[in-house]
Write a structure and sequence with these properties.
heterotrimer; A mainly alpha (373); B mainly alpha (529); C alpha/beta (276); A: 373 residues; mainly alpha; two-stranded antiparallel sheet; 15 helices; 69% helix; disordered N terminus; C: 276 residues; Rossmann fold; 6-stranded mixed sheet; 4-stranded antiparallel sheet; 11 helices; 35% helix
Chain lengths: 373, 529, 276
């Protein structure tokens, strides 16, 4: 059952992993921290072993999506809370950190003003109050966490308290992100309207497109992903995780045992939102742009399909799904752009109809089938 | 845009009557003068005669069809040439004519003059249009003519307009008493232009007479009040028409959600199917039945219903049926369907919007107030959706299908036990829900762009209607849809479209705190698990 | 949690001054031998009166059977006691001080009322062991469960319960794989480790074999005394096996109360069950 020895810190976190998980984590660490960075930085562009900018950027981006998928899986796979509004939290994290990146441009923008270009364009004379402090990276990082916490907590509190669940909850989260998208599309909102934030120059004083900066961000993302998996794993294997799943499966049974679903759901929902926001904050400096389309209902619902493809209720499944779908997307949008929507649409249908446990579930069933019964 | 065509038509019919009296030859000759002042004076004189035949000459002047040929002013109409004074056709035709050109100032004068002349047209429509044009700005010189038109005019609506126009023209009169009467008469207006006109009088330099100024102030207050009412009427009306579209979209959703507990994310795309069906019917009519083109909408209604219902049946039979009891997965699968439908529309009809035109009987509108026009297309949509609502209500309360649907909505297991064929009811209910979305598509095609993505923008709103209205409750859905529509339009006026949308969403989120099951909750044991 | 409010002085044993001294607010105060007071409870759904001025008292340690035809309001009564349904009027007190009408389901459960559903409800994807672990009396607030570990004492208790409900060999299996009767037993086991003062059992032997039914009757009888029990049942033979007082509900209020034999001979009860 719960053989976790009472040891502190990282060893306790690692303790929640089964043996294969530990080897997989080690392999991932080797690739993400040694192999790819090394081949990117220390081989010449002509070498067949060279890892290009593109690979590092796409890798970083996909890992950000994988973090989001883990967050989504915690809420949906384990908590039964299907959010169709996680794009909002992703974008909030992105915008919060993007504010810092915008301020770091300094006077190097097109208009050579202290203000971000879009504000000059709107003929604004000074920063709006909510931009104050955004030139300090620590404040930006605090916002990355605090803003999603505040919004997710307030929204979740009211929704879960009035027992809104299932599809009702899903469509209201969709409405939430939709409303936020409309708000951010407005120029007057003060976040760059349609175009959002882009043309970043530097981060913490380092040029943002330099290979070393890229690699540092890449490794930071990889570390965050590993941490998200470990924390997620320890969460779902704790008693909390078992109660959460119990609430997901039979909410009134859990209530009559004395568990108040409100706080369990609220915790996992808020945690999921923050994790998503952190992924958004890592995404922006690597991809170089954040705009309101990240909040569109379509991009939020896509997150759900990553998790469904991989297999919900398994954290590694979420990662696998995010990677598979996004690689497929990159390939399709280059090779057959007009068929991407067909593919994505069919993916939604086929996975829900035929692969309710996703590829990881399929894989496990195949393994079990081959093993002698 | 359509008005000039009407006017032209009226003119052409009139032209066919041969009885042409001769015009003042001197005034006609003066039209060819190089000097704009002279031309204007000539136009005024021709109008003052009130002679309908002058219309032809002036119209020709406006259309660059008036020429000076050998010292004689002639009207050139294609190959044929007429004497401007007598109206007789000249044979042989024209040799070496010189066009008479006009500048913008003259053209303005000309437009007003033509309108004034049409005040005496035997056709009521032509007179009405003319009177409307004149209320937009009449000159003092027109006042006597307007007074004469008033004497002969019997139609109440036109008279009202003429009184306004006459008053406007009289505002410039040198006599303070006339101006005072005019200011009083203008009180009946709700026109923002008139308000501006009166506001100019408040200045002492523009209006020396104190009584006129006081009176003008009072008139402005009355007009502003009326304009405010007009604005409210306009808002309520556009809110109702938005609401009735939402109602059509939400009715289907409410039925399928009530019966199957399924949120169909492809519902918006069923609207799109309906709209593209309308487009297809329009195209077919254009090609094979051009004379009945005006009635294509009527034919589109059943076509769209059936098309969307068929798509709905396919969705239910191939996807939703297999996901019974898994509402969250259904949500994802139907989202996938919506993507496939959008891409299919793009592949079939192109990514661009297609043009669906209002039939002519739907264009124009009822002018209830000077600043409130109720367009026919929106009136038609409101009436249509209320009709559909009534039909759905009748179906639900008076047919066997309705009975079954209500039974399954309340307690599926029990309904199954007493012999309701729940599987067939599911399919039928889904088909009806989809068909209703198709009808919504027909309505939407009349007021909005028809394109592959059109369904997406309505889906969030129609979900909100279902959330607000409650499960399987027709009255709730209707009230929620119309209420949301009107609220959205009012907030739009106060704070802009985006803030309005956000405020409505915030309201819904707060509302369901208090009443999680919507406006009209079915209370009882059935729905709690 | 719940406000200090004395139940209305309808019951002959009620002494307000004593109740405040005996226990603090929100704590169960089972003095005066009565653990559950339901007084004048009315619940209506869209005009239909599921409960109509229902008044019922359960004594400490009592085993009470509730019978009645379909629609008599048995399940609604359970819903009111456990906080699932709020009464339109009337009062429901647990002991002297705990006002059930103002508490949520989890609060009521923590106060010491356990409920078994008509349809066996267990966590099907959790193992049998985990089901019991989750049911076990403990601090059930979310933040406490984040770092909770299972002590030896708790493990022993679960092992004992597993033996009692004859599921020791199934401990590691998913509960969804159990038979219907086993699920009923598991749910009873979950109720036991929850250590409630008052147990509400809705048709506990539905779908059980005769042998299982007998064992269940034995178990329930043995629980009485230490626990108070309310059993809703259709099966008269089972009710007879349990002994104890019987309350007959009809159209949302109490029709008759007393020993099974006397109730069965009551002409009004006979009419409700057989007549018309």
């Amino acid at each position: 059952m719960d053989d976790t020895p009472r040891t502190p810190g990282i060893s306790r976190l690692l303790g929640v992993l089964p043996g294969t998980g530990r080897s997989a984590l080690a392999a991932f660490g080797l690739v993400a921290f040694v192999l790819l960075p090394g081949l990117h930085l220390f081989t010449s562009g002509k070498s067949p072993l060279h890892v290009s900018d593109y690979v590092i950027t796409v890798g970083g981006k996909v890992m950000c999506y994988a973090i989001v998928a883990v967050a989504m899986d915690l809420a949906w796979g384990y908590g039964g809370i299907l959010s169709l509004g996680h794009g909002l939290f992703f974008a909030l994290g992105g915008y919060a950190f993007g504010m810092y990146l915008m301020r770091s441009i300094g006077r190097d923008g097109v208009y050579q003003s202290d203000l971000p270009d879009f504000m000059v364009f709107l003929d604004w004379k000074e920063l709006p109050w909510y931009w104050r402090g955004s030139d300090h990276v620590l404040w930006a990082l605090a916002l990355v966490v605090l803003v999603p916490v505040a919004i997710a907590f307030a929204f979740g509190f009211f929704a879960f308290r009035s027992r809104i669940k299932g599809v009702y909850f899903s469509i209201i989260t969709q409405a939430l992100t939709y409303a936020a998208m409309l708000l951010f599309f407005r120029n007057e909102t003060g976040f760059g309207g349609n175009n959002g934030f882009t043309d970043f120059k530097r981060i913490l004083g380092f040029p943002i497109t330099a290979p070393a900066t890229r690699v540092a961000l890449f490794m930071l993302t990889a570390a965050t992903l590993a941490a998200a998996l470990l924390i997620g794993r320890s969460l779902v294997t704790s008693k909390f995780g078992r109660v959460l799943a119990a609430i997901r499966d039979a909410e009134s049974r859990a209530m009559f045992l004395g568990y108040d679903p409100l706080w369990y759901k609220l915790f996992v929902w808020t945690f999921s939102a923050v994790l998503t926001a952190v992924a958004g904050a890592l995404f922006v400096p690597q991809v170089g742009i954040i705009n309101p389309s990240e909040m569109s209902p379509a991009s939020s619902i896509e997150i759900a399909i990553w998790v469904a493809v991989g297999g919900r209720g398994t954290l590694v499944g979420a990662v696998v799904g995010a990677v598979l779908v996004n690689l497929a997307k990159s390939w399709f949008t280059m090779a057959f752009p007009e068929f991407w929507l067909f593919f994505l649409g069919l993916l939604f249908i086929v996975v829900t109809l035929l692969l309710p446990e996703g590829v990881v579930g399929l894989w496990r069933r195949l393994l079990r089938g081959r093993a002698p019964a | 845009m359509r008005r000039p065509v009407h006017v032209l038509l009226a003119f052409l019919t009139w032209q066919a009557t041969p009885a042409l009296a001769a015009l003042d030859a001197k005034a006609v000759g003066q039209l060819a003068s190089e000097d704009s002042e002279e031309k204007i004076a000539a136009i005024r004189q021709l109008v003052q005669g009130g002679d309908p035949t002058a219309q032809r000459v002036l119209q020709a002047l406006g259309d660059d069809g008036l020429q000076l040929s050998g010292g004689k002013v002639v009207i050139v109409d294609g190959e044929r040439v007429f004497d401007a004074v007598t109206g007789e056709e000249l044979k042989p035709g024209l040799e070496g004519g010189e066009g008479i050109s006009i500048n913008n100032r003259v053209r303005r004068e000309l437009t007003a003059a033509l309108a004034a002349l049409r005040l005496f047209d035997p056709d009521r429509g032509a007179r009405l249009t003319a009177a409307q044009e004149l209320t937009a700005g009449a000159d003092l010189a027109m006042a006597p003519l307007l007074a004469r038109a008033l004497e002969s005019e019997a139609d109440g609506q036109i008279r009202q307009l003429l009184v306004l126009a006459h008053a406007q023209a009289s505002l410039k009169a040198p006599d303070a008493a006339t101006r005072l009467a005019a200011v009083r008469a203008l009180r009946a207006s709700g026109n923002p232009g008139v308000r501006g006109l009166l506001a100019a009088l408040l200045d002492e330099r523009a209006e020396p007479d104190a009584r006129v100024r006081t009176e003008a102030r009072a008139s402005i207050a009355t007009i502003e009040h009326r304009m405010a009412i007009g604005e409210i009427v306009g808002r309520v009306f556009s809110g109702l028409s938005l609401g009735s579209i939402l109602l059509l979209a939400a009715l289907g959703l409410a039925i399928t959600y009530g019966v199957m507990g399924v949120i169909n994310m492809a519902h918006g795309e069923l609207l799109m199917v309906g709209a593209y069906s309308t487009f297809a019917v329009q195209t077919l009519f254009g090609r094979y039945l051009p004379r009945a083109l005006d009635w294509y909408v009527v034919a589109a209604v059943p076509v769209a219903f059936v098309a969307a219902a068929l798509v709905g049946i396919v969705i239910e039979r191939t996807v939703i049926r297999f996901l019974y009891g898994r509402p969250l997965e259904t949500l994802l699968a139907t989202w996938g369907l919506s993507l496939v439908l959008i891409q299919s529309a793009r592949t079939l009809f192109g990514a661009q919007n297609v043009g669906v035109a209002n039939p002519s009987w739907m264009s124009g509108g009822i002018q209830v107030m000077a600043n409130a026009v109720l367009p026919w297309n929106r009136i038609a949509i409101i009436a249509f959706s209320l009709g559909v609502l009534a039909l759905v209500w009748l179906t639900m309360s008076h047919t066997r299908l309705g009975l079954f649907v209500r039974a399954v909505t309340q307690n599926r297991a029990m309904a199954g036990c007493v012999g309701v064929p729940t599987g067939r009811v599911d399919t039928l209910a889904f088909a009806v829900g989809a068909g209703l979305a198709g009808l919504g598509g027909v309505a939407l095609s009349q007021i909005a762009n028809v394109g592959p993505d059109m369904g997406q923008s309505y889906i969030v709103d129609s979900f909100m209607v279902v959330v607000l209205g409650g499960v399987g409750q027709l009255a709730g859905a209707a009230l929620a849809a119309l209420g949301l529509g009107v609220a959205a339009k009012f907030l739009e006026g106060l704070a802009g479209a985006v803030i309005a949308k956000i405020a409505v969403l915030a309201f819904i989120i707060i509302f369901i705190q208090k009443r999680p099951q919507g406006l009209f909750a079915l209370k009882g044991r059935f729905l709690e698990d | 949690m719940s406000p200090v409010r004395a139940p209305p002085p309808l019951h002959p044993d009620f002494h307000p001054e004593a109740s405040i001294d005996a226990a603090g607010p929100g704590k169960l105060d089972p003095s005066h031998r009565v653990i559950l007071y339901l007084e004048d409870i009315t619940v209506s759904f869209d005009g239909f009166r599921a409960l109509d001025r229902l008044t019922l008292y359960i004594d400490v340690g009592e085993l009470r059977c509730i019978i009645g035809p379909n629609g008599a309001g048995k399940t609604t009564m359970m819903d009111v006691i456990t906080g699932k349904t709020r009464p339109d009027s009337g009062t429901a007190f647990f002991g002297q001080t705990v006002d059930l009408t103002r508490m949520s389901e989890p609060e009521i459960a923590r106060a010491g009322i356990g409920r078994k559903f008509q349809k066996p409800t267990v966590f099907e994807r959790h193992t049998v062991f985990e089901n019991l672990e989750l049911a076990m009396k403990a601090d059930k607030r979310a933040r406490k469960t984040l770092f909770a570990t299972l002590g030896d004492e708790a493990r022993d208790r679960i092992a004992d319960t597993l033996r009692l409900v004859r599921l020791a060999s199934e401990a590691g299996r998913a509960a969804g794989l159990l038979s219907h009767g086993q699920k009923q037993w598991l749910e009873i086991g979950m109720l036991l480790v929850q250590e409630p003062k008052l147990l509400l059992l809705d048709e506990p032997v539905a779908g059980m074999t005769d042998e299982e039914t007998d064992r269940t009757a034995e178990l329930i009888v043995s629980l009485a005394g230490e626990h108070s029990l309310v059993v809703v049942e259709h099966d008269m033979a089972f009710v007879a096996q349990l002994g104890g007082k019987v309350t007959v509900l009809h159209e949302g209020s109490v029709l008759a109360e007393g020993k099974l034999e006397s109730v069965q001979n009551d002409p009004r009860v006979v009419e409700v069950y057989l007549g018309r």
